[in-house]
Automatic annotation (TrEMBL):
Residues 138-148 have a biased composition (Low complexity). It comes from Natronorubrum sulfidifaciens JCM 14089. Residues 138-184 are annotated as: Disordered. This is Uncharacterized protein. Residues 149-184 have a biased composition (Acidic residues). PROSITE patterns: PROKAR_LIPOPROTEIN, TAT.
Length: 184
């Protein structure tokens, strides 16, 4: 049992540490030594070569934007189905998941199976279990930002002019009051 725990800890440290440092996530506090939860956060994404081939087809005009989005969605769905079938076959337990955007999973299971999915399968990144909720929060924040309407330059300019006029009228009122006091 100790041997399995050491391999799991090694996997967490190498996978989380290396990827987190590359991604600039070392300040997320995911590398705590007292981490009792041995589950991992796995991100499942399509093969980069297939995605790049899609981009090339889009740029060369072979496909339009709508077809590109449709094919990219199909690639993602195939990758998610592949991972879920692999997880089922290899006794990898999926505790939580969301498949919006990239497939995000909170998993636990045999170390060898998880490493194999990382090396040659659809899993592109492994983090500690704490990353799952953090990534969900970041996705929610990004979605909120995208849903906010963007101001065009004319609207922004009008808004700034209105604010400046409001500030100017306040100063004029103050100047008029101080002039009246000076007259007395």
């Amino acid at each position: 049992m100790t041997n399995g725990h050491n391999r799991r800890r090694f996997l967490q440290l190498t996978g989380t540490g290396a990827v987190a440092s590359l991604a600039g996530c070392t300040d997320l506090g995911l590398l705590s030594d007292d981490e009792a939860d041995e589950r991992l956060t796995a991100i499942v994404e399509p093969d980069q070569a297939a995605v790049e081939a899609l981009y090339d087809d889009l740029e060369s005009g072979e496909i339009d934007e709508m077809e590109f989005q449709q094919r990219a969605q199909e690639l993602q769905e195939e990758t998610i189905a592949e991972f879920e079938a692999y997880a089922d076959d290899e006794d990898i337990q999926i505790d939580e998941s969301t498949t919006e955007g990239a497939g995000l999973y909170l998993i636990d299971g045999p170390d060898e199976a998880i490493l194999s999915a990382l090396r040659s399968g659809p899993v592109t990144v492994l983090y500690g279990s704490d990353a799952y909720d953090l990534i969900l929060e970041q996705q929610a924040q990004q979605q909120q930002q995208q849903e906010q309407p963007e101001l065009d330059e004319d609207d922004l300019e009008e808004q700034l002019e209105d604010e400046l006029e409001d500030d100017g009228s306040t100063e004029e009122d103050t100047d008029d009051e101080s002039d009246a006091e000076d007259d007395e």
